[in-house]
Design a protein that fits this description.
The complex is a heterotrimer of chains A (about 290), B (about 250) and C (about 300). With about 250 residues, chain B is α/β, with parallel strands linked by helices. Chain B has helices at about 40-45, 70-75, 95-105, 110-125, 140-150, 170-185, 195-200, 220-225, 225-230, and strands at about 1-10, 15-25, 30-35, 55-60, 65, 80, 155-160, 185-190, 205-210, 210-215. In chain B, helix 3 (about 95-105) packs across helix 4 (about 110-125), helix 3 runs parallel beside helix 5 and helix 4 crosses helix 5 (about 140-150). Chain C has one domain. Chain C contains 14 helices and no strands. In chain C, about 75% of the residues lie in helices and about 0% in strands. Chain C has helices at about 1-20, 25-50, 60-75, 80-100, 105-125, 130, 150-175, 175-185, 185-190, 195-225, 235-245, 255-265, 275-290, 295-310. The chains are: A mainly alpha (about 290), B alpha/beta (about 250), C mainly alpha (about 300). Chains in contact: A-C, B-C. The interface of B and C includes residues 48, 70, 89, 91 and 105 of B.
Chain lengths: ~290, ~250, ~300
């Protein structure tokens, strides 16, 4: 029971991480290798928000979301767009560019902040006890914010004009262009949205992790796994995949050993791929993108 | 030589081909017609192995080929062309044909290059042998697809809309070419929107509508069949050459 | 045929000349690394540039070869030659097994499956301490040349590189090589032209992974210590960058990319931490300015020169 609750909480975080990643894949057909580094930036933002500026959590979160949206948007406009304009078959070159960005961002962090592991204390103390199991208030809050974010992104994709444009582009790029959708704007917004999404776990996970230049390796592996699980580019699948991965990992760590945690997750992924290559998410959702 | 028995192909809830049966004898030309979305190309894809039928059997020269891999079916003697032509655009015209010779037979024949030139000569592309296939005009690309299919040594050719998108004189050229191929003993199964082509070539015509077979017989008989006329909105199928459809 | 052999001879000549130009251990070591990464970049490119398979776990096969060879020599006392072969065979077989489910899926699924596989291998190598000694890594691996300095390694890796390039160039020029291009152009048309698409992709992948395994074995018996980090994505990324930077879908592009990026990495060493940033910027600049990669620039330059001299 304790494991299940912990699993669901971490699952909500994975779901947010996965959605931000799969969104870009669904719309642009690229894997953004610099995604983990956006998480890293958000983690540093949280660190400075707490230690230097002593801001409250809600303000840090909002500022981080705004900044990360701009960074995501800016990356698309500054480096991805020029490549897309220049090369007709841009998918692989763009992936290479995101790889280069990953290297650059990691080393910038190393130069600016050094290789230190910077940590912060918990945002909120105390925990909720019911019977013989307990959940810290902080984890509850994390769960609440992530679920709210997922609900928000769901509404955004389903109910807004931007969401419709995103879906249109993901389904048929050429038709979307013909119907007057500016794909360049859609791509940049998509990158911005992805940055915004990753900033949330980046800030909230900080008390449990540290900020250091290669911290992004952790979330990007989860993002890959969740995306794979849910079906590439399938937002609903990624949400389900995030929860399942969270629970599976927590159970594996609880009953077997902490070391096999990542291995179990990936082994399950490969089995799934062999049997349901479209992703388990598609079995459950039967819809593409939201 | 080819027997299609109660072939059905479903995609999820959609039945693209529904219990279609027909036969094709050695050396004959069978035309397959029907409105857009009536299942002609899907049927071609089932025969050439691109996707297996959901049910039914396809027998070719006394051998059950249902569900075999496309390259096996090709090596058994069924060649095909595509409605949206798919030559290997970054290879030269000659290399396209050489690939058919090198991979389309059970045992790789000797003297590939000379044979490739002979085939190109036959379809009238020998002058462009060294050109990149991607640079050819549509009519030439269609001929190249026929040449590549011929190179695999087929006894049956599946031709998907070879005349669509061509000018009148170009499509006459193709018709003449197909007649000549048929005279050399090959059976042809042709899907065509351009009715003039079907009418002037086919020994027999099968009409599909919504995935079902609604008529089967000699061309002039089928053209006056009431079911067929109904499907074509009350008018007999047009016999003039239309501009090709993009679909 | 002649051209392939010529390329091989040029590479051999380079390998023979280098040790007589410098006796600096450091430069010789760099040359060995460049040649090693050259083979890897060239054969990663066989997958991406020719077969259209985006392989993100390539370094894992290099590592598999290294571990296999290190284990059979240290534990079972095998001589080096069969150990190298074992490294290649294990990498080829496992590489083939992993790619089979991928062939039913799109190229992006391939990217993720191979990445996940490499990660599982890394975790296995880390946690199966009884066999691999975990994070500590394996050491005490017998060297290929006992106490002979680096020069013989230069000769050996050059020979491997030359052979690898000649073999690939022969494959690319064969009917199978034509089929590679055909599959990349249009898989459906290739299948209906009689090309066994999946089998060709499978054998191509096995060759590519097998070569990585042999190079891995060389690495193990050259560096003499190996750790699970070899399985990691970092090496694959380096190989990919070299291949794409040099020019994908060409034979010599990845070789050029490996040499230039490796030397550049060393050349920027004086910039300390800024070195890798420069590395990243150069990659981005190349993608933006020379989408065909470095080999495209060289070719264009060559044409320009020949036009000048011709007129």
């Amino acid at each position: 029971m304790q494991y299940l609750v912990n699993g669901l909480i971490i699952g909500a975080v994975y779901a947010v991480i996965g959605v931000g990643f799969t969104l870009i894949f669904g719309i642009m057909q690229i894997l953004n290798f610099a995604y983990g580094e956006l998480f890293m930036i958000a983690a540093y933002l949280a660190y400075f928000g707490v230690t230097v500026f002593m801001l409250p959590l809600w303000l840090i979160l909002i500022l981080a979301m705004a900044v990360m949206f701009l960074i995501g948007f800016g990356i698309e406009k500054a480096v991805i767009l020029p490549v897309r304009m220049k090369i007709p078959d841009w998918v692989v070159p763009v992936i290479l560019v995101t790889l280069a960005l990953q290297i650059i961002l990691q080393n910038l962090a190393l130069i600016l902040e050094g290789g230190n592991f910077l940590g912060i204390p918990a945002y909120i103390m105390g925990s909720l006890r019911v019977g013989n199991f307990s959940v810290s208030y902080e984890r509850l809050l994390m769960f609440g914010i992530c679920v709210a974010t997922l609900a928000g992104i769901w509404l955004l994709l389903r109910k807004t004009k931007l969401g419709l444009a995103l879906q249109a582009v993901s389904q048929n790029r050429d038709a979307a262009i013909l119907s007057g959708i500016n794909t360049n704007t859609v791509y940049a917004l998509c990158f911005g949205l992805s940055g915004l999404l990753i900033s949330i776990p980046g800030v909230l996970m900080m008390p449990h992790l540290y900020a250091y230049p290669t911290v992004g390796q952790v979330p990007i592996m989860k993002a890959f796994a969740v995306t794979l699980f849910g079906g590439m580019g399938n937002v609903a699948g990624a949400i389900i995949g995030g929860f399942i991965l969270g629970v599976a990992e927590t159970l594996a760590a609880g009953y077997i050993s902490a070391l096999v945690k990542d291995g179990v997750a990936f082994a399950v992924m490969i089995l799934i791929l062999v049997f349901y290559p479209a992703g388990v998410g598609t079995l459950l959702t039967r819809r593409k993108l939201g | 030589m080819l027997n299609v028995n109660h072939v059905t192909k479903r995609f999820g809830g959609l039945t693209a081909v529904d219990e279609v049966s027909f036969g094709l004898e050695m050396g004959r030309i069978l035309g397959l017609v029907g409105p857009n979305g009536s299942g002609k190309t899907t049927l071609f894809n089932c025969i050439s192995g691109l996707f297996p039928p959901s049910s039914g059997r396809i027998v070719f020269q006394e051998k059950d080929i249902t569900g075999l891999k496309p390259h096996r079916i090709c090596r058994l003697g069924i060649g095909r062309t595509f409605q949206l032509v798919k030559p290997f655009h970054s290879l030269s015209v000659k290399e396209n044909v050489i690939l058919g010779l090198a991979f389309g037979h059970r045992d790789r024949p000797a003297g590939l290059r000379a044979q490739a030139m002979e085939i190109l000569e036959f379809v009238g592309l020998s002058g462009k042998a060294e050109n990149k296939a991607g640079g050819l005009i549509l009519a030439e690309r269609k001929k190249l697809e026929i040449a590549r299919a011929l190179a695999t040594g087929p006894s049956l050719l599946l031709l998907d809309e070879v005349a669509s998108g061509l000018t009148e004189s170009e499509s006459e050229g193709i018709i003449a070419l197909l007649k000549e191929i048929n005279e050399r003993g090959l059976s042809l199964l042709i899907v065509e929107h351009v009715m003039a082509v079907i009418m002037s070539l086919s020994h027999r015509v099968v009409v599909l509508s919504d995935g079902r077979k609604i008529a089967d017989g000699p061309p002039d008989e089928v053209a006056n069949d009431q079911n067929v006329i109904d499907v074509y909105l009350g008018e007999p199928p047009t016999t003039q050459v239309e501009a090709g459809e993009p679909s | 045929m002649k051209k392939s052999l010529l390329i091989g001879l040029v590479i051999m000549a380079l390998g023979l000349v280098v040790p007589s130009v410098t006796d600096s251990e450091y430069y010789l070591h760099l040359f060995v690394l460049a040649a090693m990464f050259g083979v890897l970049a060239v054969y990663w490119n066989l997958l991406d540039g020719y077969l259209g398979l985006i392989h993100f776990g390539y370094a894992a096969f290099f590592a598999l070869g290294a571990y296999t060879s290190a284990l059979v020599t240290t534990r079972l006392g095998w001589p080096l030659l069969p150990a190298f072969a074992a490294g290649g065979v294990v990498a080829a077989v496992i590489g083939g097994l992993i790619i089979i489910p991928c062939l039913r899926m799109g190229s992006y699924a391939t990217a993720i499956v191979t990445l996940a596989f490499a990660e599982i291998m890394r975790i296995t190598a880390t946690s199966w301490t009884a066999l691999t000694k975990g994070e500590m890594g394996l050491w005490g691996i017998p060297p290929i040349f006992e106490g002979a300095g680096r020069t013989p390694y230069v000769y050996l890796i050059t020979a491997i590189l030359a052979a690898a390039v000649v073999v690939l160039s022969l494959i690319v020029r064969s009917y199978t090589g034509l089929a590679y291009v055909a599959i990349k152009d249009d898989e459906t048309a290739a299948a209906t032209t009689g090309i066994p698409v999946k089998r060709i992709k499978l054998t191509g992948t096995m060759v590519s992974c097998g070569v990585a395994g042999v190079v891995g074995a060389f690495y193990a018996h050259y560096i003499l210590t190996i750790t699970p980090a070899l399985f990691g994505i970092a090496y694959t990324i380096q190989i990919m960058a070299m291949s794409l930077f040099g020019g994908k879908g060409t034979l010599l592009g990845p070789l050029l990319g490996a040499a230039v990026l490796l030397l550049m990495g060393e050349g920027f060493r004086f910039m300390e931490n800024y070195r890798l940033i420069m590395y990243g910027l150069v990659i981005i600049a190349t993608v933006m300015l020379f989408p065909e990669g470095l080999i495209g620039v060289v070719k264009r330059g060559g044409r320009l020169v020949s036009r000048r001299s011709g007129s």
